[in-house]
Amino acid sequence: MSSQAPTLPAVTASQRAVVIIAAASVLALLYFGREVLVPIILALFLSLLMAPWVRLYRRIGLGHGMSVMIAVLALVVIVTGTTAMMGTQVVHVARSLPQYEATIHTKVQSLREQTLGRLDILSGELGKVIDETGQGAAPAATVVAPPYLTNAPATPKPVSTPTKLPSAPVTVITRVLSTAWVPVETAGIVLVVLIFVLLEHEALRDRFIRLAGGSDLRATTAAINDAGERLSRFFISTFSVNFGVGVAIWLGLFLIGVPSALLWGLLTAVLRFVPYIGVWLVAAVVSLFAAAVAPGWSLLLMTVALYLVVEIIVSQLIEPFLYGHTTGLSPLAVVVAAIFWSWLWGPVGLLMSTPLTLCLVVAGRHVQALNLLNILLGDTPALTMPQRVYQRALSGDASEILSEAREFLKRKSFAAYCDSVLLPALQLARIDLAAGAISTEQQTAVKRAIVTVVETLDSHESKWARWRRRSSVLESVSIGRSLRQHREDAFGRWQGPLAVAPRSVVLCLGLGSVASDFATELLTRILRDLNIDARHLSVEDFAAFDAEPHPEATPNAVSMVYIVSTHPTKERESFDEAVALTRRGIPEACLVGVFFPEPLAATEVEPPVNAELNEVVTSLEQAAQQAIARFPEGGVEREQRSATI
């Protein structure tokens, strides 16, 4: 096996340089072009909100242009009315602040007495104690006046006060207009762009498909539909929830007696678009205001309790019930996106951080070159469960594999876990082993981790036995043989007595390969967990048992025989020989062929046909269900045992 790493193409470094330069150019464009890009992006997002209303107006018989104008006019009226209402409330709060000055002064004095005042008293008492003990007494300091204070008092110099000129109305109007010009200008640009985007919505979509997709119209259409669906769900659900939170806060503050409750409800609904921190910023401001308007502390406590109760109910119950993880973004990605876009575009970027990042994630899902964005920002796992198990097994981290396995077993059976996780993970190990990509130490680590996981999840294994055997894993044999050896150490060579009830034993025969032995051992443990007397034998063991005389063995003890093959194509000859041997030795037994498909095969291989087989299954879960149907009493005992536990 060669240990040299494969040589990377010479163009890799230049490609990375191109990617870095392109990313830097995009960031520079976003930063220096924010004055132009922010209104356009806002208009595009608003168009996603207004498009359903435009389609609704068109269905009732209005023309396209008239539908757009009505929708935009309604938006302007709603936004203008809300802004005017908030402005009126802000002016009212500003005018009422002077009357709360006495309350604020009283509470500040009270807080000072409760904090700094107590510290002053404590320091004074400590000073008295130190003076009485004589350990800290210091001579009184003599205050010497500076030389300049001994001279005659200086003659005060006359200070000229500027003459106050009355402010002209034109000056006041100019200041107001200069302050409001930037948001008014931005709003005007957004409104104009929004109108034209809605008027040419279909044409713009077709142009974007032609520009981005070229000849691959299917992939581009799927990306646009995915982005539109996710953004639509995000906007609708978020607006609905935030509107409901604003109404709840408004009514709650009104009932407990906080002035200007409508203003605080509107601010809560608006700032809740800021991920995670927006609602608590408003809660802090409202709490300070509540502390200022009431002489006691009850109003402050009720305000804090109101925000806590509403936010907990909404975030923990209502939002998961309504839309769950509709955005497809990880929580860390939401926080990082909020920091990044607020640095790039300020407060507007903070409000648009989630939808902007969502667009990047959707692009990464449908454009191979941008797949990095989906991996970094998306909420889908970067590795599949088999890949995670194999990666952690390489590191020898069995505890993390067990924690994920227990979560899986809360929803599905151990057989399903083996089919969908453990066996595919072993397939990944086989591929790396065949390619010489893993060392001997890594092979040992994988074996130890898998053995620990299987034995820990086995309900028939005692913790004491697992602890004793953990350091004695057979290093020179396969995983399946190691697991089988542990049961042979406890129950003997044949893993149980030979004198048993008629037709009560199920044999599981492996064909000798590493994967076959492991799958056969998993099947044996699954059946034993169902209170079925299953025993794992190799074909050689079965032939030796058939050749040796065993007078104490029950003649018709075996009811079923599972013959396991993990590679039906390569093991066809060995499988047929095992079937023939079993049929000669136990002619009355039910023979079941267990064929596992290759997890990473490009095409599904049909299992080989053998006339001697009674049944064929393709997974451990199917084999377990087939055994339960044949031994229903075992399943009843298992259910009773589980209920007792």
Automatic annotation (TrEMBL):
Pfam families: AI-2E_transport. Signal peptide: none annotated. The keyword Transport applies. GO terms for cellular component: plasma membrane. The chain crosses the membrane at residues 7-30, 36-54, 66-87, 180-199, 239-267, 273-292, 299-318. Keywords: Cell membrane, Membrane, Transmembrane, Transmembrane helix, Transport. The keyword Membrane applies. Its main location: membrane. It is found in: Cell membrane. InterPro entries: AI-2E-like (IPR002549). It comes from the Bacteria. Belongs to the autoinducer-2 exporter (AI-2E) (TC 2.A.86) family. This is Permease. It comes from Dyella japonica DSM 16301. The lineage of its organism: Bacteria, Pseudomonadati, Pseudomonadota, Gammaproteobacteria, Lysobacterales.
